[in-house]
Amino acid sequence: MKMIENIEKYAKENRIPIMLPDGIEYLCNYIKENNIKKILEIGTAIGYSAIKMASVNDNIYITTIEKDEKRYKEAIKNINILNLDKRINVLLKDALEIELKDKYDLIFIDASKGHNIDFFNKFKNNLNDNGVIITDNLSFHGLVENESLAITKNQKGIVKKIKLFIDFLDNNQEFDTNYIEIGDKISISKRSDKNEKNISNT
């Protein structure tokens, strides 16, 4: 699709991070195979991943949050051109300052890496019982696995925060997490069976 190629080109030219091709392909296949209908995305950017997810089938509805106004406007433009505005609702807001009551089959975290734990804890209550939280960029272009490649102070800070998030997932009693070595490495977190049993026994 020409429009998708244009969005990818715009992202590259303007240094806007979007999911790597095999990462977004995996995510879309996961949505299809697990019959996911309602999605919350943290970090719209220019609408690329929301558009790709919504394109899986016509029954998918997405709420996506973006705090950068320029990116928000670009996302709205892209979504409108593709006539997806009825199924993708973009909110111009800081995700940590918004309160949502709806429940979602999938929550996709792809925003500020330093706030992954905050996003996870804030929105886990918006997850359906059998829902899943997926987080992108856990490799951070290989820097997490090889920290010596991190040159700038900013890179080193992000790597440290991603490692803290991975540790948070690994030690989380409420969710079980699998890591998929695709794209820039993603995590898939589901409520633990043990946790569900504990809830049912109380």
Model description:
By secondary structure, the chain is of the alpha/beta class. It has a single domain (2-201), classed as Rossmann fold (3-Layer(aba) Sandwich). Helix content is 40%, strand content 21%. It has helices at 2-13, 21-33, 48-54, 69-81, 116-123, 153-170, 193-201; strands at residues 38-42, 61-66, 88-92, 104-109, 127-135, 175-180, 186-191. It has a 7-stranded mixed beta sheet with strand order 3-2-1-4-5-7-6, sandwiched between helices. The longest helix has 18 residues, at 153-170. The chain starts with a helix and ends with a helix. Mean pLDDT is 90; it is low at 196-202.
Order of helices and strands: HHEHEHEEHEHEEH
Number of domains: 1
CATH superfamily: Vaccinia Virus protein VP39
CATH topology (level 3) name: Rossmann fold
CATH class: Alpha Beta
Tell the overall outline: globular
Q: Nearest-angstrom radius of gyration?
A: 17 Å
Beta-strand proportion? 15-25%
Q: How widely separated are the two ends?
A: 52 Å
Number of strands: 7
Specify the structural class: alpha/beta
Oligomer: single chain
Q: Judging by the overall fold, what is the CATH architecture? A: 3-Layer(aba) Sandwich
Number of helices: 7
pLDDT under 50 segments (min length 5)? 196-202
